[in-house]
User: Fold DUF4264 domain-containing protein from Vulcanibacillus modesticaldus.
Amino acid sequence: MGIELIASVKITASSDLYKIVDILNKTLKYDDLMFGLAKDDKDPEKMVFSIYRT
Assistant:
């Protein structure tokens, strides 16, 4: 089985969001969860926060 997308949401971009994603990944990796943050292709002021099950 691969990586399963559980949820995804668009949020307003912020320079510190990567810190939240980093601590979530470090803290919850043993619970088979992974978090992602990407720039929105259509709106440069938005980012996409995603939660995955590994």
User: Anything to note?
Assistant: Residues 17-28 form the longest helix (12 residues). The chain has one domain: 4-53.
